[in-house]
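Researcher: Let's do a round of design. I'm pasting the structure tokens now; please hold your answer until I've finished.
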């Protein structure tokens, strides 16, 4: 399925579902963040945010997914899903096709930026006889599961470079790796923040396989040039030049005056925004290494920040925190009290 057809299909699905579902009986909604596969960076970021919100007394469900496309639609249509991590090129091409197609325009309506996150490297693990990106022509290439950001990025990059593999297999990276190791495919794409745990300790033979350098001028003009340092992975002894795409935390533009569901979801978005903006230094110190690259001011052009995010990052915002229960003498109790003192639990 080529990109415009894929986006059209996704737009129709989203259009049938419509706005986020309102919780029954006005009960406080579950807070969820759509992430990615168990071996990816998205899910680790989701868990860091889950731990952060726990200090405010909020339970957050970290949801595994196929990746960016599913996450984008999850924010738009999935009940009780206030956040999703999405690749920036998904946003750019959604915007491009929205100008041409009313169904896609409806799909992106109400979806907003919460925060820009980090650059994700485009990993292409390939047989050693595939020397560069152009050598993927005529080969068996796994391009990621449908509805994933890897699927979209791989499709775009192959199209931009004018390459046609012999086979494009819609396989998730975790399923593609064993097929590469046993010779059933020749290469596979994986868009993930380095170091991606899939490549750590997986028995990849550096004599047979390597990460493909991406030096194509067109691709390096469209995407961000990047370099993986030598030794990022056990099989990778030399630096590798490639490209990257930024990951972004998305949300929905809830209207706190509309109903209980919107009000409670807006409060959750505001609380998460306040916690991230005031605890970024701690996340950089104790969270996934990619937090080191987060610049909260690097908003992608053409997209607006959600109003509930803006409210949460304002200096006079008072958080809706409830101190989590703890046994007397709990070693974390003093830390929780200090968080509440600073944050206004």
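Researcher: That's everything. Go ahead.
Model: Designed sequence:
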């Amino acid at each position: 399925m080529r990109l415009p057809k894929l986006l059209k299909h996704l737009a129709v699905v989203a259009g049938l579902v419509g706005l986020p579902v309102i919780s029954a009986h006005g009960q406080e909604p579950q807070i969820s963040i759509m992430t990615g596969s168990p071996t990816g960076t998205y899910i680790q970021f989701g868990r860091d945010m889950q731990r952060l919100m726990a200090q405010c007394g909020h339970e957050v469900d970290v949801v595994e997914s196929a990746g960016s496309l599913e996450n984008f639609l999850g924010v738009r249509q999935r009940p009780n899903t206030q956040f999703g991590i999405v690749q920036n090129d998904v946003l750019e091409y959604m915007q491009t096709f929205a100008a041409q197609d009313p169904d896609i325009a409806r799909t992106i309506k109400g979806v907003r930026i919460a925060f820009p996150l980090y650059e994700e490297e485009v990993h292409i693990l390939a047989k050693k006889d595939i020397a560069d990106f152009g050598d993927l022509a005529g080969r068996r290439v796994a391009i990621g599961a449908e509805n994933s950001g890897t699927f979209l990025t791989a499709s775009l990059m192959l199209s931009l470079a004018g390459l046609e593999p012999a086979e494009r297999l819609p396989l998730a990276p975790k399923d593609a790796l064993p097929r590469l190791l046993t010779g059933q495919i020749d290469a596979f794409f994986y868009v993930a923040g380095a170091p991606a745990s899939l490549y750590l300790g997986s028995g990849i033979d550096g004599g047979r396989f390597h990460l493909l350098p991406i030096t194509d001028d067109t691709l390096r003009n469209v995407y961000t040039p990047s370099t993986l340092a030598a030794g990022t992975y056990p099989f990778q002894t030399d630096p590798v030049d490639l490209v990257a795409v930024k990951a972004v935390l998305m949300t929905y533009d809830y209207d706190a005056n509309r109903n209980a569901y919107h009000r409670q979801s807006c409060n959750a978005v505001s609380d998460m925004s306040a916690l991230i903006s005031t605890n970024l230094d701690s996340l950089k110190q104790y969270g996934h290494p990619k937090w080191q690259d987060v610049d909260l001011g690097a908003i992608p052009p053409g997209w607006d920040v959600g109003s509930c995010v803006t409210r949460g990052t304002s200096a006079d915002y008072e958080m809706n925190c409830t101190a989590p229960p703890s046994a007397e003498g709990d070693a974390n109790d003093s830390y929780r009290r200090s968080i509440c003192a600073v944050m206004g639990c």
